[in-house]
Amino acid sequence: MSLRQSIDQAAKAVMLSDARDLPGLVALQDLLQIIMREAELRHVPTAASCSADAVELVEQIVLRQVADVELAFSRLTEAISRLDESTTEDGRCAVAPGAYTDARSSVDRDLIAAWVSSCETTLPELEHLAVGCEDVAHAGDALPDLKRRIHTFKGECGVLSLDRAQRLCHDTETYIEEELERGRFPVDAVLSLADWLRSLMAALAHDPCAAEPDDAFARTALHGDGEPSARVEAAEVQSVVVNETTDGDELIVLNFDAADDNLSDFVGEAKEHLANAESAVLQLEKSSADPEHVNVIFRAFHTIKGVAGFMNLVPVVRCAHAAECLLDRVRSGRRALDTTVLDLVLVSSDVLGQLIAGITGGPLPTRRAVEGLIARLEAASENIEVAKSSASEPPVSASVAKNDASTLMPPTEDALHPIPAATDPSARVTAMRRGDQTVKVSTMRLDSLVNEVGELVIAQLMVMQDPAISAVVDQRLQRNLSHLGKIVRDLQETSMSLRMVTLKATFQKMARLVRDVAHKAGKKVQLVVEGEDVELDRNVVEEIGDPLVHMIRNACDHGIECAADRRAVGKDETGTLTLRAFHSGGSIVIEVVDDGRGLNRERILKKCVERGLLDVSRNPADIPDAEVWNYVFLPGFSTAEKVTDISGRGVGMDVVRRNIEALRGNVEISSMPGEGSVFSMRLPLTMAIIDGMVVRVGTQRYVIPTLSIERSFRPVENDLTIVFGRGELVRVGEQHLAIHRLNRVFGVQEGVDDLFEGLLLVLESGKRRACVFVDEILGQQQVVIKTLGAREALRGVSGGAILGDGRVALIVDVGGLLEEAASHGHDRAERNGMQVHGKSSQGAQS
Fold first, then answer.
1. Smallest Cα–Cα separation from 626: which of 580, 592, 668, 576?
2. Distance CA 628, CA 600 (A)
3. How far apart are CA 678 and CA 592, in angstroms?
């Protein structure tokens, strides 16, 4: 083995070594001694000295003679790096920094892969330490720990012949010492180094022999020019005009590798970071006392910048970096946190959101919008006021107005106090915990897994209910089958839980929407969120965003009055909009509640008459409220006095009902004049599997969700009665409930007619309760929901299921069933009365 090969082998051993691996360390020590003797024979004194230092360090680690093992390994890595530089056996010549070299080609690919893998953990730790060191006086152990990390990076890069990376780490070390002498810590420089190392990792992960990325952008942070605020007098406000003569009307161009597997992960994570940042901004508007909200926003922009950097998304990097710099000034107390900063953060979030959406084919912002935003952010960092025109204004949130980019309310509140630095950064570093490990999985794979588990459930039921199996009396076989059934049920529940997500992210987006719409409409509205931890099927959550947007926009624009009108009627000038989620009868209910003026019944009826939707001969007083409110769901129906860019065209509520019903849900309205309105969406917990009670009607099978069933019983004669216009009723406790015969609801020409020969099931859906009559209950089981294709819109049915005996059963939509049955109850009243053995009565109370 040549000297060169021995050194490469030693470098690999150091990279993969561990303080607990004593045999490996002893083998490394033996190898280093061979290198030392070889260097002495070849008269290479520097190599001999470096290898001797390395031998001594390994011995100290093995004998536990070092106080800091991590520091010892850092010095060992540096010694190997010096050893590598001292050898000239292959006679290699100097090359351009970062270029592909023979030295790199000799480095083991496994060694590079191991280093890249380790950086996935060490780089986030480096960033965390950097943030903790910003307040030098309270940095504690975080500062020396950070220095060791950078020193280790430098040594490892030297071993891997990453010359440019090694020099950048070295220069960063030097700059840190220079800044510490001035009493401050250069957090931007360290974070820029981490970003650049990420881009290097990405390049090496793709090709171990790839050239090192250009480090010009990272080196800009190594040239500090003092306190920015020192160049601007505090009382003096300068003015910078954004250049409008550039070629700003052209759209931004993003250059990226569409085949990059990390791209979709970045898009999803970036959206989450932006949502968290927006939520933190809204919290800061309520209270500026918590510096952690500023840290959340800072970390969001910093993370987006770092990942976008090694994906070569330059516009994203520039926008995020400008916002990050502004927030860094706020965190360090060099810039006051006022409404200007908060508004700029939200606009930055909007522009970044557009840029990220452009990756997946969405519309990109113009160059003028991006450049204008960056100029405003840079000016705000130095407390310079930017004179901007509507042409340079970046677009506001698409949830407010897609075609109006200059209508955000100007800041009118007094400047808030600067955010104080966090009290004990070293404590934050010490308290850092490693949470549950997560693995990212494609949603297509997840859906496929859930479907396959569903098929497994069906197959298992078929085996259990097979006559050949049922006839077997072997107790051991029965125990094994029972155990198999338990495992399948557990697997089913686990797989279903994988698709369950909380409503928190969706509700957080609505908080931003309320703020923007309220500002645009000139109103004061506070959002109250309840039940954001309620879990729902991911597929359902993805579809309820648009309905929620429409309802909240309507509530802010039409429901809640302006401050003057609210004061005139004795209300608080700040309206309250409540977004609430809770479980009810096997479903999830999401309510949008406002304390505004309520729906105008007279105006709705007048509009119905004008459009020919209502018979003029009907007495308006006889029309129930529920029927009146339902008219607002008709396409194009609107009672708004004027059309705004927020709402008023009559297209929103139609979309709401259509989207909710497509999810096998329903939407209801209740309203009180002068008190407000409640819009309720009832949604299924999951779109895949439900627990159901299998019932028989004639030869047909139906599955009724168990969570909608209160009880089942066989009626007695004294409890039955008939009320004209309401049909058959049965007394349940102190209440009379309507009886709906399932065979007649679904038009089945078979089944038991005598109420005393079948069973009644008390069903509940929202505020509705009623009884359904069936022939018998066959049992309870979990079923996989199957779509019905062309019959998907069948009222009262939410899907189909394959039972254990191979039969196909319809899954009953309890809410739709009760609504459908109630709407036809009057027509069936007399016909049903012929089948009842009890007394007919027109005066029974319900």
1. 668
2. 10
3. 6
Question: Per-residue b/e over 703-733, b at no fewer than 16 CB within 10 Å?
Answer: bbbebbbeebeebeeeebbbbeebbbbbbbe
Helix (H, G, I), strand (E, B) or coil at 210: coil
Helices marked H in 522-633 — which ranges?
538-543, 545-554, 563-568, 601-610, 625-630
What type of residue sits at position 609? Answer: V
Instruction: Tell me the CATH class for 689-833.
Output: mainly beta
- Report the alpha-carbon distance of residue 157 to residue 165 in Å, rounded: 6
Cα–Cα distance for residue pair 110/116, rounded to 1 Å: 10
**Beta carbons of 84 and 46 less than 8 angstroms apart:** no
Q: What burial class does residue 353 get, using C-beta atoms within 10 Å of its C-beta: 0-12 exposed, 13-18 middle, 19+ buried?
A: buried
φ/ψ of residue 679, rounded to 5: -105, 120
Residue partners of 320: CB distance under 8 A and separation at least 6 = 301, 302, 304, 305, 308, 348, 352
Characterize the bridge pairing of strands 385-387 and 239-241: parallel
How many CB atoms sit inside 10 A of residue 402's CB? 12
> Domain locations in the chain?
1-92, 449-499, 501-684, 689-833
The 10s digit of each residue's pLDDT in 142-185 is: 888 888 888 888 878 877 778 888 888 888 988 888 888 888 88
Please say if the pLDDT value at position 677 is more than 80.
Answer: yes
CB within 8 Å of 677: residues ≥ 6 apart: 555, 559, 593, 594, 596, 598, 599, 669, 670, 671
Q: Is the pLDDT of residue 813 over 80?
A: yes
**pTM greater than 0.70:** no
Q: How far apart are CA 754 and CA 613, in angstroms?
A: 41
Q: Which CATH class is domain 1-92?
A: mainly alpha
Paired sense of beta strands 700-705 and 676-684, if any? unpaired
Structurally, at CATH architecture level, domain 501-684 sits in 2-Layer Sandwich (3.30)
Angle between helices 187-206 and 109-132 (to 10 degrees): 160
637-653 pLDDT per residue, tens? 776 655 454 454 444 67
- Helix axes of 142-159 and 69-86: crossing angle, nearest 10 degrees: 30
Place 790 in a pLDDT band, splitting at 50, 70 and 90: low
